[in-house]
Specification:
Layout lengths: L1 E11 L2 E10 L4 E5 L6 H8 L7 E6 L2 E2 L8 H4 E4 L11 H7 L13 H13 L15 H13 L5 E5 L7 H18 L2 E5 L3 H7 L2 E6 L2 E6 L1 H4 L2 H8 L1 E8 L2 E9 L4
Helix pairs in contact: 3-5, 4-5, 5-6
């Protein structure tokens, strides 16, 4: 469904993405994890066509992203960046309407079709009753749901989320991730997200992709990726890995002195 073929991207002399190869199936939930500065967000921005690689291609449904017309791009990919302006003087409904801007002909009121999609996006994200609330007056979790609703309103095949739980407390983190899970299961949206909480990534993802120094070092289901060796080589810590009927999770023990 989505492929990254031999991606090379040089940000500066000290950092580059090296020979990135990815093959993501339709309907998968993928989490990119790894230390700070490992290239997770950079790779997400390359996939979103916000950064141009020196070499390689991003292919979606057999079509090179470079050949997709600008007006058709939102039908394929929607990205929610890490930081959003939470002080915008907009209502929730007005924000979500921006998600339909690429599909609107002319200036003025949204077409009936676009307005129906906005209503759908508000409904599936549980925000219909908040449509007239201003963004600055929302909680962190509500505000993040509103931004996700705007991205969902594009009706894209792939949704890219860069650290969607940043600065949220644990309850709101779970609220956002449960929404992501619902959007994937109910509507088949393929989701690629960057997460820092590895246990959350293991719980809510079909696959984990572990990066370090601009390279993919591990790629597989959480039960295979979360292992003592991975924590030692990628994060330089000792950890205990636990498996139960709910899945897999880890407990950090100590930082290693020999790394």
């Amino acid at each position: 469904m989505l492929k990254a073929e031999n991606i090379q991207f040089v940000r500066n002399p000290a950092f580059s993405l090296k020979d990135i190869q990815l093959n993501i199936k339709k309907g998968e939930v993928i989490s990119l994890i790894g230390p700070n500065g490992s290239g997770k967000s950079t790779l997400l921005r390359v996939i979103a066509n916000l950064l141009k690689p020196e070499q390689g291609h991003i292919i979606i449904d057999g079509q090179n992203l470079k050949t997709i017309a600008k007006k058709d791009f939102p039908k394929n990919l929607a990205m929610l960046p890490q930081m959003n302006d939470h002080m915008l003087d907009l209502t929730v409904g007005e924000l979500v309407e921006f998600g339909r801007a690429p599909f609107q002909r002319g200036i003025g009121r949204l077409s009936v079709e676009n307005q129906e999609i906005v209503e759908w996006a508000l409904e599936v994200t549980g925000l219909t009753h908040m449509r007239n609330r201003l963004l600055p007056g929302l909680s962190g979790g509500e505000r993040q749901r509103a931004w996700i609703a705007m991205a969902v309103a594009q009706r894209s095949k792939v949704l890219l989320l860069d650290e969607p739980t940043t600065y949220l407390d644990i309850a709101h983190q779970m609220e956002v991730l449960e929404l992501v899970k619902y959007l994937n299961e109910e509507f088949g949206i393929t989701i690629i997200m960057v997460l820092h909480d590895i246990n959350q990534a293991a719980t809510y993802s079909d696959r984990l992709i572990v990066m370090k120094a601009g390279q993919i070092r591990y790629d597989g289901i959480p039960q295979c990726v979360l292992c003592k060796e991975m924590f030692q080589t990628i994060f330089n810590i000792d950890a205990e890995v636990h498996n139960n009927h709910d899945g897999v999770y880890f407990t950090p023990l100590r930082r290693r002195r020999n790394g």
